[in-house]
Design goal:
It is a single chain. The protein has 223 residues and is an alpha/beta fold. It has one domain (2-220): Rossmann fold. It is 33% helix and 26% strand. The protein has a nine-stranded mixed sheet with strand order 2-1-5-4-3-6-7-9-8, with helices on both faces. The two termini are 32 Å apart. The structure holds S-adenosylmethionine.
Length: 223
């Protein structure tokens, strides 16, 4: 598995990664993490959770990977890691590993995958990454002004994503508009919620009985 360390990346074996993850109470995977600001921030509040950002765009994660790799006194976060991969090709090291999975503001190819519109894009990756006891949360912003992009709303998301989540063993716990005053401290959270005032649908699904820390972390994504 390719782990981003800054401007470069290193190969980490499944055995090495699992040994590292075993030192934590839970593993959180933020799929399509973009610049990875959210895992970096929450890693500070959840030192007992291994916070992993995953994105095929290595360059986007470089700055936060570099920050996370510094000494703790200089802002380093030993519990924050960035993986170069796409959701369709889950690295073996992450198979069945995550107790919390988030996808925030998917767009273009990732949105098509979430909505089950593209080949192989039926969120199989999400099922592959999930531990037996896992909470998954999607934040999807409404789209009202782009031709060809489906209008996202709670019922629509529930209908489109529900069968794929069910196939992966998840049961939808809630699917509703996020409160207007909620903040998501990721780059796109800032742009879409604070910047443009777009509404956001939050869908939360459970498989088994996720650990309390995984539930707390997912709750902290929007505050
Ligand atoms: C609109 S950005 C959202 C970034 C971040 N979640 C945030 O809230 O700031 C969508 C991200 O999805 C990533 N992405 C696109 N296709 C993907 C795929 N197949 N698997 C995983 N991530 C993907 C993009 O590289 C991009 O960083």
């Amino acid at each position: 598995m390719r782990v981003v360390t800054g401007k470069s990346s290193v190969e980490v074996s499944a055995r090495e990664f699992r040994a590292r993850a075993a030192g934590y109470d839970a593993l959180w995977l933020d799929i399509g993490t973009g610049d990875g600001a959210l895992p970096y921030r929450l890693a500070g509040s959840f030192p007992d959770v291994l916070c992993a950002g995953l994105d095929p765009n290595v360059e986007g994660m470089a700055e936060n990977a570099h920050r996370a790799g510094r000494k703790p006194a200089r802002g380093g976060r030993a519990n924050c890691v960035y993986v170069a991969a796409s959701v369709e090709e889950p690295p073996g090291a992450l198979a069945g590993a995550a107790q919390a999975i988030t996808i925030n503001f998917p767009w273009a190819a990732l949105l098509a995958i979430v909505l089950g519109e593209s080949d192989g894009g039926t969120l199989t990756g999400l099922g592959a990454f999930a531990a037996e006891d896992c909470v998954a949360q999607l934040l999807v912003n409404e789209v009202t002004d782009l031709p060809g992009v489906p209008s996202v709303a709670p019922e629509m998301l529930r209908e489109r994503v529900g069968p794929n989540l069910a196939a992966a063993g998840f049961v939808i716990e809630s699917c509703e508009w996020l409160e207007r005053e909620a903040q998501v401290r990721s780059r796109w959270g800032g742009r879409l919620i604070r910047g443009s005032g777009r509404r956001v649908v939050r869908l939360r699904a459970l498989r088994g009985t996720p650990p309390a820390r995984a539930l707390a972390l997912v709750e902290a994504v929007s505050d």
